[in-house]
Amino acid sequence: MITPPRVALSKSTTGALKQIAARTGLSPNLVARFAMLISFEQDFEPAEDHGPSDLTINASSLFGEIEPFLMSAFAFRAGNLERAASAKVLSAHIARGAAFLNVRVDSIVDLARMCSH
User: Fold this and answer.
1) DSSP string of the chain?
2) What pLDDT, in 10s, does the model give residues 9-67?
3) Which pairs from 90-93 meet CB under 8 Å and 24+ separation?
4) How far is CA 98 from the centre of its chain?
5) What CATH number has the domain spanning 6-116?
6) In this structure, are residues 66 and 25 in contact, taking their beta carbons and an 8 Å threshold?
7) What is the spatial distance between Cα 30 and Cα 81, in angstroms, rounded to a whole number?
C-alpha cells in the first residue's frame, strides 16, 4: 500500500470534521483519524465521497506520527491499492466515519466512551 501524499475531502465531510472538532476540542486531523478507524470496522465498502472538494490534507498532517498504524489498518481493510485509488478510498472512509461521529459525538466524553467499548 502506497501512502497517498494528499487526501481531498468534500465540503460536507470537512464541515462534519470541523463540527466534531469544535464539540470535542480536538483538531480536525485527529477527528479524521477517529473517523477512518470507525469506518474501517464496517463490513462493507463506503460510498465514494461526492461533492466539490473543500479541503486537501497532506498525509503528514492527516496521519501524524501514527501513519504506520493507520496505513496498516487501511491496507488490512482495503488491500493493495494504487496511490490515486487509495486517496479516494481513504476519503470515502473519512466521510463515512465523520458522518457516523457527527450524529453521535457531542463532547470529548462521548468519543472517549466510544473508544472504551
Assistant:
1) -PPPSEEEEEHHHHHHHHHHHHHHS--HHHHHHHHHHHHHTSSSPPPP--S-EEEEEEHHHHHGGGHHHHHHHHHHHH-S--HHHHHHHHHHHHHHHHHHHHTT-SSHHHHHHHHH-
2) 999 999 999 999 999 999 999 999 999 999 999 988 888 887 778 888 898 999 999 99
3) 90/4, 90/7, 90/36, 91/7, 91/8, 91/9, 91/10, 91/13, 91/48, 91/49, 92/39, 92/45, 92/46, 92/47, 92/48, 92/49, 93/35, 93/36, 93/39, 93/40, 93/46
4) 7
5) 1.10.1220.160
6) no
7) 24
pLDDT exceeds cutoff 70 at 1:
no
pLDDT at 115: 82
Mean pLDDT, residues 85-98 taken together? 92
Give domain limits for the chain: 6-116
